[in-house]
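the two lines:
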Amino acid sequence: DIQMTQSPSSLSASVGDRVTITCRTSQTIRTYLNWYQKKPGKAPNLLIYDASSLQSGVPSRFSGSGSGTHFTLTITSLQPEDFATYFCQQSYSTPPYTFGQGTKLEIK
Amino acid sequence: HLVESGGGFVKPGGSLRLSCAASGFTFSDFYMSWFRQAPGKGLEWISYISGSATYTYNADSVKGRFTISRDNANNSLYLQMNSLRADDTAVYYCARSVLKPTGCRYFDIWGRGSLVSVSS
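prediction for all of em together
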């Protein structure tokens, strides 16, 4: 199985800040990397697919980059509604479609 | 739009059947998956099924115990869970799967989840 290493596991930031979350994979996955936002009691929300494509309806302050084994999610100008947990997920080859451990973004 | 149902409390070794009702899209055109999130843990993919139900695939953690199925006439997805264990306790989500021409598969529509609690 492809292993995912997401960092940091938690992050404190203020409204208006720029933050970056990193996801590394144990083998190359081309660009088959997706990012989700998860809030308690809510469904996961797709933000970025195929490493850098913004899902329809997601604010442009969210962006993704990377290929191979190193990927990043960047949020510019943090808004109050962005404080949540973020997960990366790979979909290279056959299942299992593994997730990173998650990054909890908290208000400083 | 996806809505899960069927969760609840069950003793170890027991069974439950989760349902996921789909609306707002042509259900039979899409692969569907089940995921779960245990308390304080991350997300885990556990099963998928193709649009025509020809192909299914389960994670090792549920292989031989869980069975995914679908009823395209009624726009419904199911997860039959047998031989439940305490470590199956989680919120279970159904999600729609999209495959891009690039080969990337992602999950764009999710339900709000159904809680399954396994305890004696």
